[in-house]
Structures are given as structure tokens and as C-alpha cells.
Specification:
hpI Integrase, Chain A, 3-stranded antiparallel β-sheet, single chain, cell cycle, globular, cell division, DNA integration, mainly alpha, Tyrosine recombinase XerD, cytoplasm, about 300 residues
Length: about 300
């Protein structure tokens, strides 16, 4: 099952923007888990049961692994099987009935409004890739799409005049997401004269195209945003997912209600969106401490 591990780690890197250290930890935990499954001749996700997972965690405990490390390993296993289910590599999730230990959620990295403007400013200009990159960045920040949703947009999914786009999210669920004027303008400029230069054969259905005229990959866009953030002088370790976090945080900071943000993000459960209320609280606390005369 190592091929699935490679796909999962790439997903964590590109979609979730996890740090190198976190990825290495997940890789170690899951490699041990897959070795355990290999011993039990579980060569396909469909063959793995909840009992397998429980016995693996029990073995970790018997080996003397600390509770925190066991919790991290179980978290990695749960994410792995959830990924297999969502991506249709499996029809079941053996960890669904296993209780998750309560852990402290880490707040996601977000950009300030000024940092977002600096990032967008790196794609100013009329060059082919400046116009394309500007359109992609504007759409990502305007809609909060996942990077996989962004690169999978097709020409027919975008209605510039109405100011909406249609995307297919997790679980094959479609949702309509509004776009602001900046994103609509950026897409219009891209479609007006740049996209046709990339679509040499004139038969590609995807909105955003690579340098060679094919569908933009998640990894390619991850490289673009890394390059642009470096040019903007942003020192934070950002990924495409950082703009999704920033989209949600800035909406809430400016008065949007949590339910509306949940719908735009495509979260099935409101609890997934509630992490952003913690982000806004923490930022407000920092602002208060920094600027209040008796902070």
C-alpha cells in the first residue's frame, strides 16, 4: 500500500501545506503502520478493519511509545483512511468508529491584508504568466477554493457576468461560490488574450493551463505560490491552503457569519469552520496587547 502513502503525503504537502517536519512525522508513523498491515497481509485498503487499527495502536502502547506520540500516529492513520475514502481509493473508513483522543488544534497560518496585497502585486504586468498567476491568486483569495478545486475549474464552471463559479468539492458535492470584482477582472484579462496563447490546440476544457498548455497541476501551482511569496518578501511558510485560511479569517474579521463561511468553504460540518473563530480571537488578543495603552 506504499503507493497510497505517496499520494497521501503529496496531498498533505500541496493541499494542506504542512511543514517538512510534520510530513516526516506522518511518513514515519504511517510507514510503521503499513509495515504492520503488511505482516497481516492487508495489501488493499478494503481489507483493513477497525480491529487492525486498534491492534496496531495497542502494539505501539506496548512498545512504550508516549501517549502523545500514539495520539499523533492515530491521527495520521485516521487522516490517511479518510483521504483514501474521499479520493475513492476505498469504500470504507476503518477508523470511523474509533474514538479520537482530544488534542489541541493548531491555529492555521494566515496572511494579513497587507501580505495578501504584496503577494498579488508580484503578478502585476501584462506578461503571459503574470496575467495567469494573477488570475489564479485572485480567484483563490476571492473564493477560498482548495487548490485541487482551483486547478480543476473548467471554462464552463465560471460565469464572470454573474460573479459566480461552480466547483466540485469533497465527496463529489457541487457548490456555487461568489467572486468579487477583482477576481472577475483578473479572469477576464486572462481569458481575453492569454489563455488562447497557452491552449495551442484550442481544445483544452480547463480554465487554468500550464506553461505547456496542459491542465495546471496542484504541485505546479504550489511552486508558483512559493515563488510569488518569496518575491513578496513574505517569511511565513505559506501554501495554497494559506490563502484559503486567509479568505475565511478575513471574512469573519469583517463581519461575515460562520454559517455563510462554512457554505463557501464547502465544509460538511460547522465544527470544521469553527477553527477560524479561534484565529480571529487570537489575532484580536494580539492587537489589543500591542496597541492598548494598558495592554
Amino acid at each position: 500500500m506504499n503507493e497510497y502513502l505517496d499520494l497521501f503525503l503529496n496531498y498533505l504537502l500541496v493541499e494542506k501545506g504542512l511543514t517538512k517536519n510534520t510530513l516526516e512525522a506522518y511518513s514515519r508513523d504511517l510507514s510503521v503502520y503499513l509495515d504492520f498491515l503488511a505482516e497481516r497481509k492487508r495489501t488493499n485498503p478494503e481489507n483493513v478493519t477497525a480491529l487492525d487499527v486498534v491492534e496496531h495502536v495497542t502494539r505501539l502502547k506496548d512498545s512504550g511509545l508516549a501517549p502523545r506520540s500514539r495520539a499523533r500516529a492515530l491521527s495520521a492513520i485516521r487522516m490517511f483512511h479518510r483521504f483514501l475514502l474521499v479520493e475513492n481509493y476505498s469504500v470504507s473508513n476503518p477508523t470511523a468508529i474509533i474514538e479520537t483522543p482530544k488534542t489541541v488544534n493548531r491555529l492555521p497560518e494566515v496572511l494579513s491584508g497587507r501580505e495578501v496585497e504584496s503577494l498579488l502585486a508580484t503578478a502585476k504586468g501584462d506578461g503571459t504568466f503574470e496575467v495567469r498567476d494573477r488570475a489564479m491568486l485572485e480567484v483563490l483569495y476571492a473564493t477560498g477554493l482548495r487548490v485541487s478545486e482551483l486547478v480543476s475549474l473548467k471554462l464552463r464552471d465560471v460565469n464572470i457576468d454573474a460573479g459566480y463559479l461552480l466547483t466540485m468539492g469533497k465527496g463529489e458535492k457541487e457548490r456555487l461560490v461568489p467572486m468579487g470584482e477583482s477576481a472577475r477582472t483578473a479572469i477576464g484579462e486572462y481569458l481575453a488574450g492569454i489563455r488562447i496563447l497557452l491552449d495551442r490546440k484550442g481544445d483544452n476544457e480547463y480554465l487554468f493551463l500550464s506553461r505547456l498548455g496542459g491542465k495546471m497541476s496542484r504541485q505546479a501551482f504550489w511552486n508558483i505560490i512559493k515563488k510569488r511569496s518569496g518575491a513578496a518578501g513574505i517569511r511565513k511558510n505559506i501554501s495554497p491552503h494559506t490563502l484559503r485560511h486567509s479568505f475565511a479569517t478575513h471574512l469573519l474579521e469583517n463581519g461575515a457569519d460562520l454559517r455563510s463561511v462554512q457554505i463557501m468553504l464547502g465544509h460538511a460540518d460547522l465544527s470544521s469552520t469553527q477553527i477560524y473563530t479561534h484565529v480571529t480571537r487570537e489575532r484580536l488578543k494580539k492587537l489589543h496587547q500591542e496597541f492598548h495603552p494598558r495592554g
